[in-house]
């Protein structure tokens, strides 16, 4: 299977990407049929799918074990279930764990280290587990927890230690020294004041695509194996890259990409994915 270069939360564009779908406790319980139908539609579209596991009330290392078992048993044999070749040569499912810092390292270690009481390591439910780095201290917690890597998620440069482009080189150096994946997350811009009116200081203007390209260049400069994109269609945070046309309702004015074409950010993504592939070939020479 071709390894994807960019992972795009929620759904995907056709540019050698993997789609990340979010899953939480509610989708595992009360709405499981509706959620499964949405995921199966993604699979039928021919996209590779990785899972972005959101926090939920009562999320623990044990409940995560149950979640992973369910996901693997339900979808693991599907050809679109994304698997990543690990540093040991094993090809394993890739899981992103959002707000992983809410669970202490000693609890994660019960799931993610070989000697844990309900470890998935070396079992049919093993995988590549990627934690969220927000603060600098989280990198040490992630290592102690037994995670396989870390990602930054947030599209607003400077919002957190992890999402600040200037820190990516140091994070990548730490990850390389400890055999961890570093997965920087890029975005086309950020504006969430429609849902968080107090957060204007974290707004990042798109500047007709220049913010996106600056983020992509910062990511590629640290030579990562994967880059994630936040996001494909999270309109409420102004991070969407899907096609957009002018639209206004009584309560909201939707962002569009004028004077550029509706597919401007998909085209930029395609171009940078191709560039990433070429650069990776050089790194491996």
TrEMBL record:
Any Pfam family matching the protein? Glyco_hydro_99
- Gene Ontology MF annotations: alpha-mannosidase activity
Q: How does it sit in the membrane?
A: Single-pass type II membrane protein
- Which controlled-vocabulary keywords does the entry list? Golgi apparatus, Hydrolase, Membrane, Signal-anchor, Transmembrane, Transmembrane helix
Q: Which family does it belong to?
A: Belongs to the glycosyl hydrolase 99 family.
What CDD domains would the database entry show?
A: GH99
Q: Name one GO cellular component term.
A: Golgi membrane
Q: Which organism is it from?
A: Seriola dumerili (Greater amberjack)
UniProt name for this protein: Mannosidase endo-alpha like
Primary localization: Golgi
* Localisation: Golgi apparatus membrane
């Amino acid at each position: 299977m071709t390894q994807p270069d960019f992972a795009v939360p929620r759904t995907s564009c056709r540019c050698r990407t993997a789609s990340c779908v979010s899953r939480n406790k509610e989708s595992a319980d009360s709405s499981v049929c509706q959620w499964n139908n949405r995921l199966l539609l993604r699979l039928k579209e021919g996209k590779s799918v990785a899972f972005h596991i959101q926090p939920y009330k009562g999320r623990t290392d044990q409940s995560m074990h149950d979640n992973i078992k369910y996901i693997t048993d339900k979808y693991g044999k599907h050809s679109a279930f994304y698997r990543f070749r690990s540093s040991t040569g094993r090809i394993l499912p890739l899981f992103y764990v959002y707000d992983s810092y809410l669970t202490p390292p000693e609890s994660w270690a019960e799931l993610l280290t070989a000697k844990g009481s309900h470890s998935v390591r070396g079992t049919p439910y093993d995988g590549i587990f990627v934690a969220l780095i927000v603060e600098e201290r989280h990198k040490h917690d992630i290592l102690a927890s037994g995670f396989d890597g870390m990602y930054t998620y947030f599209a607003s440069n400077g919002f957190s230690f992890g999402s600040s482009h200037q820190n990516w080189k140091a994070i990548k150096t730490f990850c390389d020294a400890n055999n961890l994946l570093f997965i920087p997350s890029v975005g086309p811009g950020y504006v969430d004041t429609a849902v968080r009116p107090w957060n204007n200081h974290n707004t990042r203007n798109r500047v007709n695509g220049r913010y996106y390209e600056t983020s992509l260049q910062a990511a590629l400069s640290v030579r990562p194996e994967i880059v994630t994109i936040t996001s494909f269609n999270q309109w409420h945070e102004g991070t969407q890259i899907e096609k957009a046309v002018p639209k206004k309702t009584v309560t909201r004015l939707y962002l569009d990409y004028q004077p550029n074409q509706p597919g401007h950010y998909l085209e930029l993504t395609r171009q940078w994915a191709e560039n990433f592939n070429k650069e990776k070939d050089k790194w491996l020479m």
